[in-house]
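Fold sample X.
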Amino acid sequence: MIISKRTGDAYVDDNDNLASAPETHSAEEGVENIEREAQTWANLVGIVGQAFAFHKCFWQMLCWMRLGGYFIPTPRRMFSDLNVWIKDHRGMASKIQYKDHDSPNEGLGVKLCPSGNQRPEFEKRLDQAS
């Protein structure tokens, strides 16, 4: 009988984490949620002896503000003083780059925007077809 002594292999090259709340009362609360979840993931990655490439990380947030009887996406200038910082296993904090909610995050070859903007993906497919 052959018994495997390996307990597990894991490899993550690209990873997307999402933090959401059913109701967030402010942009500050949203950024706190994002930072807490990102730090939790960094801690878990550190526990197994790995590390983030913080220069490759970014964060996006889609939050809404009321304008008349409508809700519109809150522009970055309304929360430009808020940033996400993540600490590595030595306690060194790195500021994570902000990426606009209308900018695509290319994951697994598909350009997705938190805002639902499909133009970047559409333009990519048009370029591939020509």
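Fold sample Y, listed below.
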Amino acid sequence: HRKHPGGRGNAGGQHHHRIMFDKFHPGYFGKVGMRHYHHTKNAQFFPTINIDKIWTLVSAQQRIKAKAAKAGSAVPVIDVSKAGKFKVLGKGKLPRQPVIVRAKFFSRIAEQKIKDVGGVCE
């Protein structure tokens, strides 16, 4: 036992231990992709919600009340931005009752589906 004949730790990964690194740890050295210098997480933060999940933001009592309401009476307001979502996307179906949806952004299909059930996008 003569101390550290091959060097300490991962020494020689690109030199005398190259075969071991290439064989058992391919891709250990080097870089990949592009650097993003001033990366701001806020700029990337864009949570979305689909139309089929919109009614889950409303309490069960409000849902029952909205279903029983007659045409022309008060329409429920669903504020998506209060739930921390920015954009409403158009996957799924809405129940056939008017609703006011508040959000920063709407996809074209989501807006169409909300209007088809007699609702409004704000």
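Sample Y note: The two ends are 76 Å apart (CA to CA).
Also: The first strand starts at residue 48 and ends at 50.
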